[in-house]
Write a sequence for this structure.
């Protein structure tokens, strides 16, 4: 977090008026003009104790602990600029903004920016709170009450110093309503819609599910355009209207058009905001007719779905970004008297509420009675909690359930029934799953997408927001055939997992990616099968073992497998596969005895079934258990060599390659560098020929091990980096972590001590978070030889680096590991 003043501070915002014209006038010299303007302002502001918070393009944001110093700095800055061609408008506002990692956030920041944007070049506009602190120290002119473009109620604004300027750029002749508070976040989205409306688009429809904040967003866009349209900006609320035939008369009333509406808009330069159009779509052709008759007319509409007009540009309004969600929650909680700070609990609440502004505001209102921690616990079922919005809000905006029901009630019966069936999906789902499980057809899905009850997210996949899924799930509970939908869901994902298992060696990356996307639904399917079909549960859990192992879901997978194994008959292929998977997962959790027992049972079962292919894979698993968890290198070599012979007799070239991987690992562990290096090069060639990314990853890793054992750390670093790059597409957390540890050791050997300790500590924290224990004798000895030596030699300094590394998440560790620079951005020998 930046070291910025806290408490009551005075904010100063500046930007250049007419920067485009200034650029045209000065051409290539504009950069010099801009730099001189920055120098003069920085000197003036710094002289009066200002702290620079942000600068973008031709704008500054400074903060002062004293309102008097802020005013003096602004006045001095304007005097310094008077001799230049640059004219800057300034806004000064005093408040208590919140300090966050990215700087200041909160309503006072937005308010100060609004004060600055309403002035003119050379003018200093001061808010009412700042004016009260300045006393008689400056010449101040009362500019009267003004509504700023945050749509709040009018407040007095003042001008610091002399000078006559045009009227402020505030909300004058417009019927835009007063809002509860400024729009938080959405700056980028506002700019995008403004660009559409001012660069050729005649009609823009803002779409999104209930609770996304479409009305408040569109009102802000309209406010920004006040003064840009000669004949005004007009808001036409349509939510209370039930007859599409009355839309034109409602527009005419808002505009004051006494005779023909079509005649009135001809020749006019104006913007219409048609708010809540979704239930009046039959009136859409009338809007098209107005656009055709009035070339200066622009229409901004809000609707749950598009109007389907030829001139329409749809703008889907997505939920708030995480940081903006947290800011909104904090501000709205303050509004009900609860001081809360942004942090993990608030972030978790906002994620549970899908970043929907309405849901966040309703939840924040509950902090008057509940702590954020208690509120989070109660959000397992969000809809009953999220009630009691502002009394002056429409009923559909006073509870989230009402907002969703408003959209649901507009659906035809088949579409509503489909929505309920789709609630069986726990995460995003592909088109073929929707067709197979829920009986979906393309047109019905399109209807739900148009109604903003379903999101199309690319790659032929769809998503229900959690809050909408909860509503739809309640519908499914009361519907006939709910059990049939759940059975089809479980059957679909069981078939998916078994296909992935069968093709995992040939297409590991593709299937691992697919299973990761569908993991939530695979969990739901396994829960269903565990309760209704014990054999099906064993089949699914056994088929997922390889995925759980490679993607770090080891404790979860182990628990699920042990649970289903307690309830099945002691024979069959499904049981043998589940036993193999259980053995693979128990080892990394530190239970080598249970792991070996499970694998021995699996070997017995595969031999009894006469399945040499699966027997060979189980032997591979036994070899890895022995090398990684029991320290039995000779036993591991025997298992891998037996597996290799079986793969060869089965004609399984890819399986043979995987067994060779195990043999290479044993040779490295035994310190037989010459044979290990030779076989690893053969393995690399085989991996390239077969297109096997996992074998390629291991080949690079073993070559790196050989270099590290020999003390050739530069070559080891290059190979570990290649191995890491090959491991990343696999998504294998264990292998990714091993490569980062390898890079840490290589860095230590090259004298890059900080890099070495940061990376090693990050992996220590990762192992702990996963609950994984891996102890390979030769690897532990290498870690101590390189990283341990550095850590002992640096003493207290090493512990500082170690703490830095433990705070690094996996994504940050990967980025640092792949960089040729150190953690501090410089490649050096520490």
């Amino acid at each position: 977090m930046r070291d910025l003043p806290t408490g009551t501070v005075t904010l100063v915002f500046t930007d250049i008026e007419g920067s485009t014209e200034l650029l045209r006038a000065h051409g290539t010299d504009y950069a010099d003009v801009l730099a001189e303007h920055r120098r003069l302002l920085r000197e003036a502001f710094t002289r009066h104790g200002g702290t620079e918070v942000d600068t973008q393009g031709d704008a500054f944001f400074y903060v002062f602990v004293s309102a008097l110093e802020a005013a003096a700095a602004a006045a001095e800055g304007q005097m310094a600029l008077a001799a230049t061609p640059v004219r800057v408008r300034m806004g000064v506002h005093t408040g208590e903004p919140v300090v966050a990692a990215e700087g200041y956030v909160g309503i006072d920041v937005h308010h100060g920016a609004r004060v600055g944007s309403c002035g003119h070049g050379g003018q200093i506009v001061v808010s009412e709170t700042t004016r009260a602190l300045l006393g008689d120290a400056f010449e101040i002119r009362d500019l009267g009450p003004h509504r700023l473009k945050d749509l709040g109620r009018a407040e007095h604004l003042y001008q610091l110093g002399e000078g006559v300027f045009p009227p402020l750029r505030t909300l004058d002749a417009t019927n835009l309503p007063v809002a509860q508070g400024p729009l938080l976040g959405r700056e980028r989205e506002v700019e995008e819609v403004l660009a559409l409306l001012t660069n050729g688009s005649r009609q823009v429809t803002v779409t999104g599910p209930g609770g996304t904040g479409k009305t408040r967003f569109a009102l802000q866009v309209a406010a920004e355009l006040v003064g840009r349209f000669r004949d005004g900006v007009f808001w036409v609320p349509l939510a209370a209207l039930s007859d599409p035939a009355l839309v034109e008369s409602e527009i005419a009333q808002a505009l004051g058009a006494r005779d023909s509406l079509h005649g009135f808009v001809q020749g006019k330069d104006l913007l219409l905001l048609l708010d809540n159009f979704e239930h009046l779509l039959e009136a859409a052709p009338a809007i098209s007719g107005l656009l055709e008759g009035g070339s200066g007319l622009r229409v901004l509409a809000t609707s749950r779905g598009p109007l389907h007009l030829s001139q329409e540009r749809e703008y889907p309004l997505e939920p708030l970004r995480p940081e903006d969600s947290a800011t909104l929650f904090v501000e709205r909680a303050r509004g009900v008297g609860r001081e809360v700070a942004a942090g993990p609990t608030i972030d978790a609440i906002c994620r549970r509420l899908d970043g929907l502004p309405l849901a966040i505001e309703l939840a924040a209102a509950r902090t008057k009675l509940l702590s954020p921690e208690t509120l989070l616990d109660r959000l397992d079922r969000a809809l009953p909690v999220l009630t009691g919005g502002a009394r002056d809000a429409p009923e559909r905006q006073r509870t989230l359930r009402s907002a969703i029901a408003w959209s649901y009630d507009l659906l035809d019966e088949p579409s509503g029934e489909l929505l309920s069936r789709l609630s069986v999906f726990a995460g995003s789902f592909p088109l073929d799953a929707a067709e197979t499980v829920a009986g979906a057809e393309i047109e019905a899905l399109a209807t739900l997408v148009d109604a903003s009850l379903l999101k199309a997210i690319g790659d032929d996949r769809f998503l229900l927001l959690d809050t909408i899924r909860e509503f739809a799930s309640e519908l499914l509970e009361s519907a006939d055939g709910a059990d049939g939908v759940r059975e089809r869901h479980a059957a679909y994902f069981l078939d998916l997992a078994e296909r992935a298992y069968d093709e995992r060696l040939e297409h590991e990356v593709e299937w691992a990616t697919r299973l990761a996307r569908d993991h939530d639904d695979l969990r739901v399917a396994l829960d269903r099968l565990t309760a209704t079909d014990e054999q099906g549960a064993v089949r699914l859990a056994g088929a997922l073992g390889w995925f759980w192992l490679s993607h770090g879901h080891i404790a979860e997978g182990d628990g699920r497998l042990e649970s289903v194994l307690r309830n099945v008959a002691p024979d069959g292929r499904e049981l043998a596969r589940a036993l193999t998977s259980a053995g693979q997962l128990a080892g990394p959790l530190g239970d080598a005895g249970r792991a070996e027992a499970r694998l021995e049972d699996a070997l017995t079962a595969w031999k009894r079934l006469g399945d040499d292919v699966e027997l060979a894979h189980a032997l591979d698993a036994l070899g890895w258990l022995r090398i990684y968890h029991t320290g039995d290198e000779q036993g591991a070599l025997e298992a891998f060599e037996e597996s290799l012979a079986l793969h060869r007799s089965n004609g399984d070239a890819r399986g043979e390659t995987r067994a060779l991987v195990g043999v290479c690992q044993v040779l490295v562990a035994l310190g037989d560098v010459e044979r290990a290096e030779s076989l690893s090069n053969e393995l690399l060639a085989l991996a390239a020929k077969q297109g096997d990314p996992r074998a390629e990853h291991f080949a690079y890793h073993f070559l790196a091990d050989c270099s590290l054992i020999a003390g050739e750390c530069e070559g080891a670093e290059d190979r570990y980096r290649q191995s890491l790059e090959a491991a990343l597409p696999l998504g294998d957390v264990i292998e990714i972590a091993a490569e980062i540890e390898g890079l840490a050791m290589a860095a230590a050997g090259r004298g890059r001590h900080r890099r070495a300790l940061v990376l090693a500590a990050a992996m220590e924290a990762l192992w702990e978070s996963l609950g994984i224990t891996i102890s390979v004798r030769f690897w532990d000895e290498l870690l101590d030889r390189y990283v341990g030596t550095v850590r002992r030699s640096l003493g207290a300094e090493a512990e500082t680096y170690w703490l830095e590394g433990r705070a690094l998440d996996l994504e940050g560790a990967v980025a640092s590991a792949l960089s040729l620079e150190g953690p501090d951005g410089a490649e050096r020998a520490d």
